[in-house]
Structure formats: C-alpha cells, structure tokens
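Kindly review this protein for my students:
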Amino acid sequence: MGYIFLTMIAFLVIFALPAVVANDITPIPEDKGQVEAWFKANVQPYSARRGTLDPALDAAEASPQIITVNQGGGGDFKTINEAIKSIPTGNTKRVIIKLAPGVYREKVTIDVGRPFITLMGKPGAETTLTFDGTASKFGTMESATLIVWAQYFVAANLHIRNTAPMPKAGSQGQALAMRINGDKAAFYNCRFYGFQDTLCDDIGNHFFKDCYIEGTYDFIFGRGASLYLNTQLHAVGDGLRVITAHNRQSENQQNGYSFVHCKITGVGTGIYLGRAWMSHPKVVYAYTEMSSVVNPTGWQENKNRAHDKTVFYGEYMCTGPGSHKEKRVAHTQDIDKNEANSFLTLGYIKGSLWLLPPPTY
C-alpha cells in the first residue's frame, strides 16, 4: 500500500511540475515577431494558473476588488492617495485602482503593509502621475513621484513623471520618477520621465514590458533582479550620460538587469550602457537595437580598476550602429547562447510563481 502511495505522489510531482518549470526555462525568442506569442504561452491568466502561484497571491487573485479614482467626480475617490489609504493595512486581496485619464499631481507611497495593489490607467488615454520632488528637499531615495514598498504591485498604462528641472552638467540633481522596493512587481505599458536617477529599480524581482524610460545619468539604478522586455531607453540632455548603475555588491547576490528586445535611442552621442556604481554590477543587453547615441566603448571605464574583474557587462546579438563591439572596453562579456539563455527566461525573475498578464480596464 505504501509503495502504491509513493508511486502516485511521484507521478503527480513529475506531471505537475513541468507546467510551472517550463515557463521558467523557455527563452524569449530571437524573432521579435514571436515575443507576444511567447508571452501569452508563458504568462497565462490566473484562471489557468490557479494552484500554481505563490499561495498568498493565489488567494489574493481569487476575489479582486475594484476602486475608481476620478478627479472630476463620479468615482470612489478624487485622489490616488485617498484610494490607497482606504485599503486596510494587512490587505490580502487584489485591489485594482482604476484611474480616469488626467494629470494627478501627487506624491504617492504604497507602504509594505498594502500588498496586491494595481494602479491602472485607461489604454490609449494619457494618465499621468507627476510631482517635482528633488534630492535637496526629500533626499535622493525619497524624491520619487511614486514609491512602492509593497509586494505584488502592478502598474499599467501610466505615465510617471518627475517634473523637477534638468540639473546643470556636473551638479547633483537627483529627482526620481519611480522607486520600486517591493518584490514581485510588474509594469505594463508605463512611461517614466526624469533626468538624473529616473527609475530606482531597487529591491526584488521585477518585470517591465512595453515601457519607455527617459533620463540623463544613471537613469535606471538600484539592486533589482529585473527583466525588461520590448522597452525603449531614451537619453536626453548632453554631457556625461549613463543608462544603468546597478548596485550589485558581491558575486553571491542574485540580481541584475536584463534588457531583451529593447531599443536605445536619444539625442547626441556618447551615452554609456552602464557603469560600476558598486563593485559587481550585472547588466545584459540581448536582441537590443542600439542607435548611434551609444558610445563605441559601450560601458564607462571603471574608476576603480579592480572592478574590471568583477563587473558583468553582457551583450548578445544586438543590432544597430551602436551595437558594434570592436571598440568595447575589454571587460565586456561576449556571452554565448547557453550563457545568454539564463537572462532570457522568466526564471531570471522567478516569474512562474507570480507574474500575471496585464489587467484589462
């Protein structure tokens, strides 16, 4: 009897696991035209994933609540902050906050006690969160227009801006649009606007799809383990400009930025793909279109020469005039297919356990 029971358990394990594990190991295809089909096959809706997600998320998605915000009236609330404050601390259900189109001038923080929140604008209609916080007034990390500490956060169809003026060249003008410190967060069709330090992608596993990120210096920075898919990185301004400043500090930390089927655009020339803010940054660009705005050396030279041996700067099958690697710094990783695949799957962000498709308005 015991043998039969163990055999049944083994059978269930063998045939139940592949549905989850396969999502984590199936790489994003090289052909950009196949990306949407890959996404639909590997990021299926809750109805098809019930029982396979993180237990807390599984329970939260079973009975979502909808809150509406309209500055002109007719919604449940007139401000985003009022809507968030209405959600109890210790929340256990998915709460979808639907925002009517318009410009919301608010500084918004979602604290750690309010997980499972979705902020959603209407597709095709501009919905903007904006504030002008600066490092001089709030400190760099607290200057963001939107700060999220909570787990399982989702944003869709939003413009998130920091409207502080562009700092003068060489000055410390940090002014964040967004700071994400919550684990297991997803961003769909969102646009982030700022100059220095636009997006603080700091702690946890994060996913960005069909987004746009604009800035000057270190405009994506932090300690995140993040996958960016079909996202445009746009450089503005002049002088020294750098896209990423990843804050990995040891070989043992499981984090890094992976940009797949992205597009690098901007004005002028000479922008760097990344720099060693800390000793062990990990940044990979795969299947990414790089315009001539990219500096031929690719990555900023390390001020600390010891970092030449500890940085991980990878490029794989990128295209465009900025992708030519003849003049790249010597410590650029020319990764092969097997090595690239680890950055091309949902397993990089443990996505099979938490990532769901974008919500519908």
Remarks:
- Residues 1-20 have pLDDT under 50 and may be disordered.
- The first strand starts at residue 65 and ends at 69.
- The domain at 34-166+174-353 is CATH 2.160.20.10 (Pectate Lyase C-like).
